[in-house]
Design brief:
heterodimer; A: about 140 residues; mainly alpha; about 0% strand; B: about 110 residues; alpha+beta; Arc Repressor Mutant, subunit A; 3 strands; Metal_resp_DNA-bind_regulator (chain B); WH-like_DNA-bd_sf (chain B); WH_DNA-bd_sf (chain B); PadR family transcriptional regulator (chain B); Perm_prefix_1 (chain A)
């Protein structure tokens, strides 16, 4: 019977912990164990009964969808990277603007602001790359 | 065994009907479906629990913990007032659909 519990926990392993998840998991374990018990009573060996029960369970993705895992995760990640990208663009823009101002105000004859601009550019570039990956 | 995608849209109603008759728990429902259909249709547990989630979220059923058996407490489902109304509507709808589809399916 331990095997049933292990299997169910494995199916649910990538669903974030919550009270609902815990309740469903317990419910499924209880019901599957009862099924195994029934099959054993019907003349199957315990191992056969457990295997049959696990094979017949079906595709866990239905439950995941109901719990909002399938829809929720990628969308929020993309949104998150969109936010990171926006922040990096604003941040690097402000830093570069500061360098340009210092450059033009104090040393107008020597154009050096290009160097720190390149140094800062990696930041929005990385975020842009990540954001593209989620599109 | 019939194609499960054709029956999928009616699973909510099928399960609601079984809970309507009396309060039931998961394994009992899957067994009952197999018995009544003479094993022509078997519901996958994964599908069944997804339906429970959906029906509970829509407040068509509610659950409570019942007696202890085989190491755990059974979770029973009970139909709500809203669930009964929904089921009644679905049955009427189904009778309508059945007639319409039959116009094209019969006599061949």
């Amino acid at each position: 019977m331990k095997k049933i519990k292990t299997h169910v926990e494995e199916w649910f392993s990538d669903i974030p912990e919550s009270e609902t998840k815990q309740a469903i998991q317990e419910e499924i374990i209880q019901n599957l164990e009862e099924k195994v018990f029934d099959l054993v009573r019907g003349g199957k060996t315990e191992e056969d009964a457990i295997n049959k029960t696990i094979v017949e369970f079906g595709d866990i993705s239905d439950i995941k969808q109901e719990l909002g895992v399938k829809n929720g995760k990628p969308v929020s990640s993309r949104k998150q990277f969109g936010l990171h990208l926006g922040f990096s663009l604003w941040g690097s823009g402000l830093i570069v603007a500061l360098f340009i101002f210092i450059n033009v105000y104090y040393t107008p004859d020597d154009i050096w602001f290009v160097y720190p601009t390149f140094a800062v550019a990696w930041w929005p570039l990385v975020m842009f790359y990540k954001w593209l990956g989620w599109k | 065994m019939i194609r499960s995608d054709l029956i999928r849209g009616h699973l909510d109603a099928i399960i609601l009907r079984l809970i309507y008759e009396e309060d039931r728990y998961g394994y009992e429902i899957s067994k009952e479906i197999s018995v009544r259909t003479d094993d022509r249709f078997q519901i996958k547990e994964a599908t069944l629990y997804a339906v429970f989630q959906r029906l509970e979220r829509k407040e068509l059923i509610e659950s409570y913990l019942g007696d202890i058996s085989h190491g755990g407490k059974r979770r029973y489902y009970k139909i709500t007032k809203l669930g009964k109304a929904y089921l009644k509507e679905t049955v009427e709808e189904w009778n309508e659909i059945k007639e319409i589809v039959n116009i094209f399916m019969e006599g061949l």
